[in-house]
What we know:
Elements lengths: L17 E6 L10 H9 L4 H9 L5 H9 L6 H8 L7 H12 L3 E8 H10 L7 E10 L2 E5 L13 H10 L2 E7 L5 H4 L4 E4 L2 H8 L4 E3 L7 H16 L1
Parallel strand pairs: 1-2, 1-5, 2-3, 5-6, 6-7
Antiparallel strand pairs: 3-4
Helix pairs in contact: 2-3
Amino acid sequence: MTNAQRSPLTHQSGAFTGWEIHCDFDGTISRQDVTDTLLNRFGQRGWQAYEDAWERGEIGSRECMVAQIALLDMSKEELDHCLDIIEIDPGFIAFAAAARHAGIPLIVVSDGLDYAITRILAREGITDVPVRANRLLQHDTRAWRLETPWASPVCPSANCKCRTAREAASRDNAVLYIGDGSSDFCVSKRARLVLAKGKLIDFCQTHRLPFQSFNHFEQLMPTLERIVASTTQDTKA
């Protein structure tokens, strides 16, 4: 097999020491976008205009989400009730357990809301997966604001996912990236392999990125098994 034909799961000794799995949340792990769900239910007039501007590329997700979260009118109880009925892909539970058992770091890297993600995952018994997402803060009975601790001054996104990928590279780790939408486009160019659904499939095809398409997490178990096998072989070599 020539270098050009090598599988993304095969690498020369010393190219990198291991793998990290970076996974989007909204629409990837969850079956619906959490922020959109909250805005549709509790958003005050004007939030859609920011959404439209973001979709046209006029503003980045950071400007969009900070403005939209400020327009949410909901109590903490209403927020929790809404989050508690949002479903996730049930296959993610087994996928996360398999990654943990194999010793492959798994992190959720999301342009969404940290509180929402940790609550939803905890409901499913997943409490040990790190989450990098925007910080949702309540500052009055029905008022909220957003902080973006993972933003970058050179990136318009609320969460610069490429920053997390660069940190993996600094540890000589390859990134297996899992996502579904436009917030995953940029970071996919930094991944060793992309597991894609939704709009991310077209993006990977257009840019000739190494990817595999999927609909449900249970379909990704063979890929995870091959990664474990390839890492084990390189360790023995």
